[in-house]
Design brief:
phosphoprotein, FMN, 2 helices, FMN binding, EC 7.-.-.-
Amino acid sequence: MNFKSIGIPTIKLLVIAAVITILLFLTNNTTEAKIAQNQADANVASRKEVLPDADDFDEKTVTVDGVEYTYYEAKNGAGYVFSGSNKGYGGAVVSMVGISSDGKVVGVKVTEASDETPGLGAKWIAADASGNERRAQFVGDIPESGSFAVVKDGGTIEAVAGATITSRAVTHDVNDAIAQYNAVVGGAN
């Protein structure tokens, strides 16, 4: 074994690895701000989707049962946007919920449910082929009990057949948003 057979290939490999590392670093620095801006724009668009009458939002925090949550208050007084996250069938199901200043659920958007069963739990993300929008079940007055429940649990929310766990997770997300809303306005609805 001599230096030519071991040393030169090793040095070449180290140089190639260093060049690739530098290129990745430069690419990350170039795109990082744009990616962050795109994510921020997507979040604003989602907030306006669940609370369409809002013009812009102020970020605030509220504490419910010892847990601090970030929520968004519409600057024009249209209402609030809250988020909830609960365990679904395959992982976390995260939802964004718009509640008007008079206490009505205006919109619900599932923002993360990537690990849910394709074709079943994922039906909560968008309307199905026939245009059925499952999230619309939450829109309107908050129930007298102060929370929603799926039919199997004695409530009115129709679960996706075969995806009751995901349906419960979305329902719990909305209920978490209602609890945050009640903490913000200072009482039960």
